[in-house]
Write a structure and sequence with these properties.
Elements: H1 2-5, E1 10-14, E2 17-22, E3 25-31, E4 66-68, E5 72-74, H2 84-116, H3 139-147, E6 150-161, H4 164-175, E7 182-186, E8 189-197, H5 200-211, E9 218-225, H6 230-254, H7 263-280, H8 283-305, H9 308-326
């Protein structure tokens, strides 16, 4: 009960003074009695200083590197200069050098093979310029004529036989049908030829035409080699263009084409060869010339008569020219 009527006092110590409060009113203030020193501590707050503020550096993750040809591994922190020649041209240059080297080796190999395999036979296809009287004395024509050792022509074949007698029997049967037929010895066989032309396609057409006479035919390319000496080969080489012109025109006319032969030119070419053939004193050379002259005359007669028998005879004379060329 006394406590209800006697409110409590509050005593506090402020700056070394003991103060007593009652009902919120200061009622007493006196110095504090000496006592044991009390433990105390002071709060020290740092002063705000903008200069003392430290910024925490931002940690960035390193970017992934990449590999560059000629520069190795490149990272963002340690970049190497990318040189255009290194990155693009070096592989191209290497490829060009390697390819050129391989190509040179292959070329040398092919050239060596071609050299060891021998030279290709000369084929005279051009017609010499017109000559009046004596032949033009040009070094190129003489060299070309002397180089002729064989003629490449396209013939219609009538059969291949192991003996000349068997070939002669078929030759007679074919000749009775007014079809040209001449026997050639090739290696160890005897071949019967029925016609001549200047291209493989034309020889095929000529074979189809001759088949209408009831004979067996086959067309192919044939190389007729010459057995003449160097002097005779030169004269034979000058005959070859005449043979080619007569062969082309006679086979074309047998197939229904118009003549494109310059007969006057053929006559001049044969006339220029006459003296040389006579001076050569060779039987096979003389026979070859005579067969070629006879073929030219038969071809001339056909232009007036238009009888195909004369064209067939022209073809036969041309085959006989090849026979003498082969001797």
């Amino acid at each position: 009960m006394d406590n209800l009527n006697n409110p409590k006092k509050i005593t506090i110590k402020i700056n070394g003074q003991v103060k007593t409060f009652k009902d919120g009113t200061l009622v007493d203030s006196k110095p504090a009695a000496a006592a044991e020193p009390e433990e105390s501590f002071d709060w020290i707050l740092p002063e705000e200083d903008e200069e003392s503020e430290r910024k925490v550096p931002e940690i960035k993750k390193p970017k992934p590197g990449f590999f560059s040809f000629g520069n190795g591994w490149i990272t963002p922190n340690k970049k190497k200069p990318i040189v255009f020649l290194q990155t693009y041209l070096i592989p191209i240059i290497c490829a060009v050098i390697i390819g050129t080297s391989l190509g040179f080796i292959v070329l040398k190999t092919i050239a060596g093979t071609a050299t060891t395999s021998g030279t290709q036979p000369y084929e005279r296809e051009t017609v010499p310029t017109e000559k009046s009287g004596k032949m033009a004395d040009t070094g190129k024509e003489k060299k070309a004529a002397a180089a002729v050792t064989e003629i490449k022509t396209y013939l219609v074949q009538g059969g291949i036989f192991t003996t000349k007698e068997a070939a002669a029997e078929i030759q007679q049967q074919v000749a009775e049908k007014n079809v040209p037929a001449e026997i050639f010895k090739q290696d160890d066989q005897f071949v019967l030829y029925l016609g001549a032309s200047n291209t493989l396609e034309e020889s095929k057409k000529l074979a189809v035409f001759l088949k209408t006479f009831g004979v067996d035919v086959f067309w192919k390319e044939v190389n007729i080699k010459s057995g003449a000496n160097e002097k005779e080969q030169k004269i034979l080489g000058d005959m070859v263009p005449v043979y080619q012109q007569l062969t082309q025109d006679s086979s074309a006319q047998l197939l229904g084409s118009d003549s494109k032969l310059n007969q006057e030119k053929i006559d001049k070419q044969l006339a220029s060869l006459k003296t040389e053939v006579k001076n050569a004193s060779s039987a096979s050379l003389s026979d070859a010339y005579n067969q070629l002259t006879a073929a030219a005359e038969l071809h001339r007669q056909y232009q007036s008569s238009q009888e195909k028998t004369q064209l067939l005879q022209t073809q036969d004379k041309l085959l006989m020219f090849l026979q003498n060329y082969q001797k």
